[in-house]
Automatic annotation (TrEMBL):
Keyword set, alphabetical order: 2Fe-2S, Iron, Iron-sulfur, Metal-binding
Pfam families xrefs: Rieske_4 (PF22543)
Protein name: Rieske domain-containing protein
An example Gene Ontology molecular-function term: 2 iron, 2 sulfur cluster binding
Top-level taxon of the source organism: Eukaryota
Record-annotated Rieske domain positions: 39-118
Organism the protein comes from: Bodo saltans (Flagellated protozoan)
InterPro entries per the UniProt record, alphabetical: Rieske_2Fe-2S, Rieske_2Fe-2S_sf, Sol_Rieske_ferrdox_dom
Length: 199
């Protein structure tokens, strides 16, 4: 987690809230595990990561079932930068927060004549590229909230803007609930503990 500094004067309910990730610039972000950091901004769990020269900030817990989306691998699906949730493999576009779907190939039958289904093995593995047919499709509306970022002039420190509380209230996104809830925090921590081998 990074030290954060909130904006100096209190914004109105409509205004963006500005957070400087004190001392965290792009170089330092790249040097962290997974080239990302997780932090809490105004009670909201947010992940900041760099991908192909662009800084993204998104709600850390997944909109679907509060899985640790922020810890997932970043992948380019066709030309769409995405993050893949480690729990159920859902894809989220990093630029818009939309769900990205692709049509899967028909299920795998061990016995074609009798249509015996081969269930997936556990733990589930990310589907391989040849598991899909057809192009990637954007969901059309954000399900995961993406936060605006920029770099502080002079220091290069990363700045994250959270939308105003009124804006969030009147234009909710599915990830809002988990991003500010204990269950989202729990899933991020469990994932982090496992990755560090401390379980
Ligand atoms: S929790 Fe199900 S896809 Fe993320």
């Amino acid at each position: 987690m990074s030290d954060t500094t909130a904006a100096s004067s209190a914004p109105s309910a409509q205004e963006e809230r500005r957070f400087i990730l004190g001392g965290l610039n792009v170089e330092q972000l790249r040097s962290l595990s997974g080239q990302r950091c997780h932090t809490v901004l105004d009670g909201r769990y947010v992940t900041i990561l760099e991908h192909r020269g662009r800084i993204y900030a998104l709600d850390s817990p997944c909109y679907h079932a509060a899985g640790p989306l922020g810890e997932g691998p970043v992948v380019d699906i066709e030309d769409i930068p995405c993050i893949r949730c480690p729990w159920h493999q859902f894809l989220v576009a990093l630029d818009t927060g939309e769900e990205i779907t692709r049509k899967a190939k028909p299920p795998n039958f061990t016995d074609d004549a009798n249509q015996v289904f081969q269930p997936p093995t556990y733990p589930m593995q990310p589907p391989s590229e040849d598991s899909f047919v057809g192009p990637a499709v954007r969901g059309g509306k954000a399900v995961q909230r993406i936060h605006r970022t920029e770099l502080e002039e002079g220091t290069g420190d990363i700045i994250v803007y959270l939308q105003g509380v009124d804006v969030i209230k009147h234009r909710p996104v599915r990830s809002d609930v988990n991003a500010c809830h204990q269950r989202g925090a729990m899933s991020m921590q469990i994932r982090d503990i496992k990755q560090r081998g401390l379980e």
